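Thanks for the sequence, V.! I ran Proteasome chaperone 3 right away. Repeating your input here for the record:
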Amino acid sequence: MKFVEHVKELDSEVFSDFPGELGIFASHYENKVVVQIRYNGEMDSTYELKSKGLGNQEQELALDFGNEGGDFADDYAPVRDPLSHYDVITKLGDSNDMKIPIICTQIAQLYDRVIIPRLGGQQGLPSDYVITLSTKLWRKSEVKSFEKLIFLLAAIKEAYE
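Predicted structure:
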């Protein structure tokens, strides 16, 4: 079992509409990682991400309609979408908000591809996550949502360095 705690001031350029600090707390268990992301100590939503166990398989999700030599061939082109490898379950919070589950899958991908391998775990093994966070970081302003996500992912990565 491993515990991680990291507190970081919010970047005033990215979070210009409100000041504060970001607290990242993580507990690693054998089969689950519990992550808490606090804005000024507050959290208001909880999501559970369960791996579908698809691993690194390529799934044929799209059709490639090529026109080679004048004939139309319906060929499947494999498409990799690692964010679809998770079932996201809203435990607490607004289940109609589609932005936060995407943010949670990005966090899970960061753990699966970067953090877990750094801690000595095997990359590609399915992991489950419980992510509790404050949606106020995204609710106050729609501006710079991508920059806010990048700041959050960088702060999580920084917590493990």
